[in-house]
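User: I'm writing a short report section on ligand binding and want a predicted complex to refer to. Could you take this sequence and biotin and write out the structure as tokens? A short remark afterwards would be nice.
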Amino acid sequence: MIDEPFEPLPPDLAAALAHARAACGDRSLSLQYRSEVTSTNDVVARLASTGAAEGTTVIADRQTAGRGRHGRTWHSPPGAGLYMSVLFRPAEAAGAPDSQVDEDTALITLLAGVAASEALEATTGLRVDLKWPNDLVVEKQDPGGLRRLKVGGILAEGVAIGTLLHHVVLGIGINLRPSAYPPDIRDRATSIEEEVGRGPDRGALVAHLLIGLMQGRAELQAGRAHVVLQRWRDRATASIGREVQWDTPRGRLRGLTRGIDESGALLVDAGGDVHRIVAGEVTWL
Ligand code: BTN
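Assistant: Sure. The structure tokens for the complex follow:
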């Protein structure tokens, strides 16, 4: 596959990188910009396979094949959204079994939600809730009931290479302007501009995001996943006492959310039996 040409960093992103490096004391943090890619996750995956360091980040103005969870398309027109991917190389990489890859990927998904929600609140004042496992949502109480509008999403792709090494490509997509999402999902989606009346300062948002991600990564590496999990719980009102349904090999089940456990799995009480949901699709009722 041919790599996209290297492009200079726009000034706001150059300032964001300098700010994040200074705040984290981490010079290995790097940021590349591309005007057009298939998917920033593809670019970071290729960079990972050629030995790129943890913290390697790619931001694109447009994605021609942006993707979401479960193979869905992530609409990514130019100038409308933040499309960003970051490389993580979890500390326990050597000899990691598949279950470790899955657990690291799950925790990094939650960490990304926390970092994105905190960065959005700090730079726009908007309160963004987290919906397990990967949605950034704005909750609205309307006369018709509670509505959850998706403003962004996270796609963490864990890759095992034999049993020797693995890495996680973390992709974050945030709707900055209404044109970021297709009109047919208008009743389920929103953008920062619609919520706060203006687009965010992209440089400030990216700087906060990178700092939050690197600080969270340090917590995970120091064995303090509980700190990240607690910050996730504080921003995930729907993770306790909300009705959900999900499909199992034995049919569809329904229950009330009971929070997340220490590995990031969603706990759901279905008629007194507490189920641990690790992956798959959960529908919030
Ligand atoms: C979802 O909600 O299903 C996850 C959406 C993730 C979208 C981001 S945009 C940057 C990165 N590149 C991709 O192709 N996807 C992620």
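A remark for your report: The CA atoms of residues 160 and 166 lie 4 Å apart. Residues 39-41, 63, 66-69, 72, 74, 83-85, 134, 153-155, 171-173 surround biotin (CB under 6 Å).
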